Amino acid sequence: MDRIRSITVFCGSSDGRDKAYREAAEKLGKAMADRDIALVYGGGSRGLMGIIAETVHVAGGHVTGVLPESMNTSAVRQKSVESEIIIVPSMHERKKTMYAMGDAYIAMPGGIGTMEELCEIYTWRQLRYHSKNIGLLNTEGYWDPFIAMLDRGVHDGFISEAVRNIIIAEEDPERLIDRLGSENSPLPPKF
Ligand code: AMP
To answer: pTM score, two decimals?
Structure first.
C-alpha cells in the first residue's frame, strides 16, 4: 500500500460541548503534520474545522481548503492558515474536489454536513467509485450510534457485511492514521 500523503477530513463547523472534541482535533492535526500528511478540508474557520486547520498549519503541515463561491467570505474563510485555497462553483464541486484530493478520509465528530460527506464517500466506496479507506475518529464514542445503525442495517439485511466492514473506527488519532495507512478495507461485491 502506498504511503498516505493527504487525508480529507470531514469535521464539524461547531466545537462540540466537551473539550475532548477540540483536543481530538488538535491531536489529529498534530499527528498529520508530524507524518507529513497534508490536510484537505472544507476551508472554514469555525468549529473543529478551524481548529484542525490551525493546528496543522502551526505544526508546519500543508493545508488545502476547498470552498464554494457562496462561502468565499471573510465570515467563513480561514485566514492565513491555508497553504492553498480552491474556490469552486458549487457544493457538489466542492465535495468532488475534496474527495479527489484525499488518499484517505476521516470523519471527526460533527453535524449534518459531516454526516452527509461521510455517507456520500461511504456510498461511493460501496459503488466502487474509489477504493480509499474511510475512518471515524470516535472521540467520546460519538460515532457509536452510527456504528450501531450500520450493525442494525446488516442484521436487518440492508447493509452487507463487506460494506459494514469498510469503516475503520478508532478513538486515538495516531492509531486511526496507522490503520488507514496499513489496512486494505474489503471491497464490497459488485452490483
Ligand atoms: P456540520 O458537520 O454540519 O457542522 O458541517 C460541517 C461540514 O459541512 C464540513 O466538513 C464542511 O465541508 C461543511 N460546512 C458546513 N458549515 C460550514 C461552514 N460554516 N464553513 C465551511 N464549511 C462548512
So the answer is: 0.94
191 vs 176: CA distance, rounded Å = 29
What is the 66 CA–ligand 1 centroid distance (Å)? 11
Measure 18 CA to ligand 1 centroid, in angstroms: 19
Cell of 58: 502551526
As a whole number of Å, the CA-based R_g of the chain is 16
Is the CB of residue 33 less than 8 Å from the CB of residue 56? yes
Cell numbers at 120, concatenated: 456520500
**Domain hosting residue 154, numbered range:** 6-182
CATH of the domain at 99: 3.40.50.450
CB 87 within 8 A of CB 69: yes
Answer whether residue 144 is part of any domain: yes
Is the CB of 10 inside a 6 Å radius of any atom of ligand 1? yes
Separation between Cα atoms, residue 63 and residue 183, nearest integer Å = 25
Q: Tally the domains of the chain.
A: 1
Q: How many residues does the chain have?
A: 191
- φ, ψ of residue 129 in degrees (nearest 5): -70, -20
- Which residues pair with residue 9 across a beta bridge? 106
Convert the pLDDT of each residue in 65-110 to its tens digit.
999 999 988 777 766 788 899 999 999 999 999 999 999 999 999 9
C-alpha cell at 80: 492565513
